[in-house]
Design goal:
402 residues; disulfide bond; 24% strand; binds calcium ion; glycoprotein; SRCR; 18 strands; SRCR-like_dom_sf; 15% helix; membrane; seven-stranded mixed beta sheet
Length: 402
């Protein structure tokens, strides 16, 4: 009863704009590479890192995802480093040392012997079954020695993480977030632009969501065309095709430019996006054009450390209640975040996180999974205490609740 209720509670952590510094122009960047398309594929990601280390990401079922650090071992890292074409691992990292990934957490509690040919032969909770957040993304450090015959040299940089808007006019120490500008994507060597051929408002919506804004608006493309005509540009992406509900640009489809990018994007210009801030962040003065309706009165976040995170509650027949859904994910969580005036969801949190919080009180108890090292840094994102009624009975009897 109680334990089941706890496992059903879900939460959300929304993108919220930061009082940002004004972006600097990008620096020249090397050329990008397209990822291949085999069934199971691996890559190293994150910043900062060397070519033989990083957050481990795996492509499964056509979706890139991460691996949780719970119970992680050097034997796991050996298997993963061989997937990446290295002879062995020299170490592994926990708690998103190379930054948090996005999208799926594909594997959790992985337990390899070390000699497996594939990570899918190792024990785990199964593909897509995890009680982790991206704060627990595992990384590997591989021995810088290639397996004989291994040719792939594209592992270093083949996907998108950080995105920013570079405003037309720079104002140092501007006390407002940048809401409009040229979309730039971070590369290892600097920032690069996106060719806006076939760009549409659904792409803009995803960019705004990532930056903590609930919606997008039209932009004066001609103004930016003139502005950027004589700027040195470093195009990296083109043919971006988001459906609009993605929580991160990396979850959209797009292409990387290959080889020499001089003359890239002849039929277009750098993608420019303009975002609308949520009602919570607009001066409550006279009504302004291009702002949104007040946030929903039927959904709220409770128990989070910040306004942008918490347990999702909905109002029905004058009563607030929680939501239970096994398939709670970034897409659905983003709907709630945007409805509340935030951007897309940074994490869709399930009740297991709270359940694990309870489990920490009872290490070794029957039926309670062992907690791996690295758990200590958990809680940076989501700290929703359970309401008394939802606390599992077993834990309540233990008398160790925070
Ligand atoms: Ca962990
Ligand atoms: Ca786990």
């Amino acid at each position: 009863g109680g334990a089941h209720l706890a496992s059903c509670l879900l939460g959300v952590l929304c993108s919220l704009w930061l009082w940002g510094t004004v972006a600097q122009p990008g620096t020249p960047a090397p050329t990008g590479q397209s990822p291949g398309v085999p069934q199971l594929q691996f890559r190293l990601a994150g910043y900062p890192r060397k070519h033989n280390e990083g957050r481990i990401e795996v492509l499964y079922n056509g979706e890139w995802g991460t691996i949780c650090d719970d119970d992680f071992t050097l034997a796991n890292a050996h298997v993963l480093c061989r997937h990446l074409g290295f002879v062995a691992a020299t170490g592994w990292t926990h708690s998103a040392k190379y930054g948090k990934g996005v999208g799926r957490i594909w594997l959790d509690n992985v337990n390899c012997g070390g000699s497996e040919k594939s990570i899918s032969s190792c024990q785990s909770r199964g593909w897509g079954n995890s009680d982790c957040s991206h704060e627990e993304d595992a990384g590997v450090i591989c021995k810088d020695e290639r397996l004989p015959g291994f040719k792939d040299s594209n592992i270093i940089e083949n996907h998108v993480e950080e995105v920013r808007l570079r405003p037309a006019v720079s104002h140092a120490n501007r006390p407002l977030p940048v809401m409009e500008g040229i979309v730039e994507v971070r590369r290892r060597s600097g920032w690069a632009q996106i060719c806006d051929e076939n760009w549409d408002s659904r792409n803009s919506r995803v960019i705004c969501g990532m930056l903590g804004f609930p919606a997008e608006k039209r932009v004066n493309r001609n103004f930016y065309k003139l502005l950027t005509q004589h700027q040195q540009l470093n195009y990296w992406l083109h043919s971006v095709d988001c459906r609009g509900h993605e929580a991160h640009l990396s979850l959209c489809s797009f292409e990387f430019y290959k080889g020499n990018t001089t003359g890239a994007c002849q039929g277009g210009m750098p993608a420019v996006v303009s975002c609308i801030p949520g009602p919570l962040f607009v001066d409550p003065g006279p009504a302004r054009c291009g702002t949104l309706a007040p946030p929903s009165q039927r959904v709220r976040l409770k128990g989070g450390a910040r306004p942008s995170e918490g347990r999702v509650e909905v109002l029905k027949d004058g009563e607030w209640g929680t939501v239970c859904d096994d398939r709670w994910n970034l897409v659905t969580a983003s709907v709630v975040c945007r409805e509340l005036g935030f951007g897309s969801a940074k994490e869709a949190l399930t009740g297991a996180r709270m359940g694990q919080g309870e489990r920490r009180q009872r290490p070794g108890g029957p039926g309670w999974p062992r907690l791996a090292s690295g758990r200590a840094q958990l809680g940076l994102g989501f700290r929703a205490p359970l309401p008394p009624a939802a606390i599992p009975v077993a834990s309540r009897q233990g008398g160790h609740l925070p």
